[in-house]
Description:
Layout lengths: L3 H5 L1 H38 L4 H8 L5 H13 L3 H12 L6
Helix pairs in contact: 2-3, 2-4, 3-5, 4-5
Amino acid sequence: MYDPLWEEHPKIQSIRAESEAEGKLEGYLEGQLEAYQTLVLDLVKARFPTLAEEAQHHIVQIKTVDLLRLLAKQLVMAPDEAMARWVLSTYAGKPGTS
């Protein structure tokens, strides 16, 4: 049964607005995470193409933007494929991964 007075109650409207804001924030954060995962994978493909498949496996495990940013910096500075492989495996095992 629908009660318009319930829907118009300020507390109900406040709860609904908070819920919508939280949903928007979660969507934004998920988008940021996906963007950084794509960025890091593109970086690996450009510098170390033979590591692309392995990198994909490691990158999707990382669930924080900060950790992905650090990983990107380390991959840019990696002098060779062996170091890049080590960096990928090390970052995939840190807290903030699934």
